[in-house]
Please model this.
Amino acid sequence: MKLIAGLGNYGPEYEKTRHNYGFMVIDEIQRKHNFPAFKLEKAHNALISKKGNVLLVKPQTYMNESGKAIKSIAAYYKVNIKDIIIIHDDAETNLGEIKEVEARSAAGHNGVRSIIDELKTNEFKRLKLGINSEDSSFKNKPLEDVVLKNFSKAEEIIALGVIEKAVEMIISKVVDLIV
Model:
């Protein structure tokens, strides 16, 4: 069983923010690869879509508490830590770039820190989607203001390309598990 989780904040006001980049990838995997509709599993506080041996997950906690949902789902479905892939925004990486990492620190990302704290390990895989922009409106702003900002129209075009590439990267890892 593979658990693929996109990180974000629930609610329409956060839907198109940079912090919801992970949710956007999960939504595109679900749509493009005919996963069933997401269902809210209250016991895990997450939206889940299951196809074959792959779980697509969107925690319905705020970003800072993502680990609670991931820990609950991994325990319930008996998912090995090495079979968890987390997709999230990364302010240290430039917009348009994806970094694939494993067994790394949270590097200041509160959602990832929550997962590490709850799972008591950092041995899971991650796709870090860059949100850093040359846009001067980002300079000297608190990180919270940056991650909760929507993409501009020009940035949205770049982000859509990144989402497509991330979907391909994820599907190549799990294609044999989707029935």
